Queue: 2 jobs
Job 1
Amino acid sequence: RKFELSEELKAYKGVWVIVEQERGKVHTVSYELLGEARKLADKLGVEVGAVILGAPGPFINEISGEAIAYGADVVYTVLDAALAEYRTEPYSKVMTDVVNTFKPEIVLLGASTLGRDLAGAIATTLLTGLTADCTELDISPENRSLAATRPTFGGTLLCTIQTLAYRPQMATIRPRVMQMPERDGTRTGRVVEVTPNLAEDIFVTKVLDFIPDSDQEEAQLAFADIIVSGGKGLQKAENFKLVWDLAEVLGAEVGASRPCTQAGWVTSDRQVGQTGKTVRPKLYIAAGISGAIQHRVGCENSDVILAINSDPNAPIFDFAHHGIVGDALQILPALTEQFRQRRLVNRKAS
Amino acid sequence: MHIVVCIKQVPDSAQIRIHPVTNTIMRQGVPAIINPYDLFSLEEALRLKDRFGGRVTVLTMGPPMAEASLRKAMSFGATDAVLLTDRKFAGSDTLATSYALTSAIRKLHEEEPVDLVFCGKQTIDGDTAQVGPGIATRMNMQQLTYVAKIEDVNLDSREITVQRRSEGGVQVLKSRLPAMITMLEGSNSMRFGTMDDMFRAARTPLKLWNKDTCVDDEAKVGLKGSPTVVSKVFVPKPRAEKAKMIEAEGGASAQAAAAIDMLFTTYPKLANDLVR
Ligand SMILES: Cc1cc2nc3c(=O)[nH]c(=O)nc-3n(C[C@H](O)[C@H](O)[C@H](O)COP(=O)(O)OP(=O)(O)OC[C@H]3O[C@@H](n4cnc5c(N)ncnc54)[C@H](O)[C@@H]3O)c2cc1C
Ligand SMILES: Cc1cc2nc3c(=O)[nH]c(=O)nc-3n(C[C@H](O)[C@H](O)[C@H](O)COP(=O)(O)OP(=O)(O)OC[C@H]3O[C@@H](n4cnc5c(N)ncnc54)[C@H](O)[C@@H]3O)c2cc1C
């Protein structure tokens, strides 16, 4: 097996992020990735490139500006009517061409439905390595290659994967795993316009319709500042109300462990963890959750974790910052009541 | 109609344990199952077979013991099964895996043209979701991932209409056969096989293929054909300290008060968010 880069592949330079925009809306994972790309590019001493694909439109300029503010040095806008809605065929065709033309050494995408669909296709046309669902990215000092770390077997182990003899090196990263970078409106960058001239009739798949989810339907869990989560320790569906009550006084979102969503105590879009959402709130209150690894990977990036569990040896106390050993059925209402009182005092004071 | 369903045999991850000293995965005694996501695709394929006739071939690449998963799939109603097994395939990453599977699908296609390939949305062990798109790209098939519902199939015009989950909504896509589809979990539920299917599953000989049967370029499979290199496997670092316990005499309300005091003094910025 060869691990050395050929001379031709050594010419690949720069760290790219494919900016996901659908109908003018940018998926925040793209900004999170620009923050990561900035760190990698600074270590390598190269530029950060952002690629924006879509139909020509006024919002493209705005998105280019945002990409620069979040860390890009150069923005490639790839614009064509055939790229208006995401479809695998035209997107992978133009991305393959753009990569072959500009030769970036690293290409990052969000592990979203768009990112996973596109990454799997272009890694195959480019015949290169693709590491899925990474939680950590770094540059290996020995060979300047991307060291992409991802959980395996549900997070019980981690592995670091490298693509040594092929370029570009590709990776997808889950939303909310990386920190949102500071927006810097004073940054400047170049815009390179690419006009692919696609003939719509060569593309077989057509988008007949798009049915948006209603906003209320999707819990805004991933972006909540405060989350109160309940687990199987609450014992029955009715007791989950105690979680909702505390969330209400705190203006928080409600989360849950998998057994609770499976039992139908709460809807499945509120599940936190490996097969649910990754969250990173300022405060995560976990009540009656044991802290299994599949739950942990979804919430351990929270700034502060406060766990309530009746078992002093529950694994959640291994990664929570603060713990209360006690009965969640009593402590949750006590917290709700006392927060309510403090809020009243606070209101009167102001 | 000829449908190929790719299934992978995986360890039942709920029961995986890590050896406390060597940090390696202890697979002994862990039951192997069909990747749960693949069952949604298999069921959808069987429904199309019920409607249009034809056959469903299940295909897996794996060790000889993966035969059990193929027989299980036949007991649900799959027509026949191919086990692609060869020492040379060991260590394949997703690029090499999609190459090997595509080689087998091409051979099946020569026997009888393939209209649809189904893959699972992802597996529960490798969990990359990359093999399906790899196969579609190599076969030059239309790629339809995260399909929540197949609305319509028209065998005369060879058109297919599906609902595809995307960020923030559902796309309704009109496409054409041949296509590669991955089904979303929960889109259907696996049937119980009939008695006939169970007998057939036990008796029908499998097609046992190896690299010589269908793979043109040996350098594209196994470790050699894999651009990714696993450079390190390790246990997540435990957090340096355990949780600081909040203790107070006087039951739940005293504990709650102590917790709130702690939050407000330790994280003054958070206090604003909490009582805003
Ligand atoms: C492939 C796979 C994917 C998975 N994905 C996820 C995922 O995304 N998210 C997820 O959460 N799980 C997931 N799981 C499940 C996970 O392994 C655990 O089973 C689950 O997280 C446990 O939920 P729990 O802590 O609520 O319940 P339990 O493990 O039953 O724990 C209940 C806890 O409550 C405590 N308790 C009991 N009574 C009280 C009380 N009165 N007051 C306070 N505490 C009390 C107990 O001490 C215990 O610690 C997955 C599993 C697999 C195999
Ligand atoms: C812990 C771990 C991490 C890994 N990380 C990576 C990585 O980041 N990048 C990488 O390139 N490789 C990776 N690999 C290797 C990869 O898992 C293998 O190539 C594997 O054969 C297929 O990938 P998958 O399990 O992720 O399948 P997915 O791509 O998640 O599978 C999707 C579907 O493809 C079909 N399919 C997949 N494998 C088979 C098969 N053997 N036979 C029949 N159908 C199949 C099934 O329908 C399946 O539902 C990893 C392996 C492990 C064990």
Note: Residues 4 and 57 of chain B are 5 Å apart (CA to CA).
Job 2
Amino acid sequence: MSYNTLKELNVEVLSVSVDSVFVHKIWNETELSKMVSGGISFPMVSDQGGKIGTLYDVYDEDAGVDIRGRFIIDPDGKVQAAEVLTPPVGRNPQELIRQIKAYQYHLKTGEVMPSGWTEGGTTLKPSPELAGKVWEVWKP
Amino acid sequence: MLVGKQAPDFTSNAFYNGEIKSINLGDYKGSWVVLCFYPGDFTFV
């Protein structure tokens, strides 16, 4: 399950919706715990009034809900990546995990991940010598 | 666009491990955080 992978990567998850904490509790008890063994093990934040959603520019005032915004925040508190989807389509946890692995690898090594990179794939070391010669070491 | 900027701080109540807890994003400094907004509980996707 993706959440375990995120735990292994030392990533804390916070989910946010405009529902009250009591609705979160009942949703977890009556439905989510039947989908995920043990139920949800990360904080389910309540954003009644949409204040947090407004700060992150994902609050839809007309519908009164937070749309699907996903933000990767680094250990310094900086937003490194964002993805925003309208309600009908769900996210892809594998893409989230790929992005987190790439950012963690970058933080550790300073290397950069070219388009389509997945774990174990070719990375690039930016330097004056590499300018104009990416084609020698990496092909899309 | 927030990408590349400091994540806006917030404090709010959360349901966590069977309890109601106050959560402050700033307390998560030092960790990677995924913040996921979604339209609502008991929806389908």
Note: Residues 3 and 32 of chain B are 15 Å apart (CA to CA).
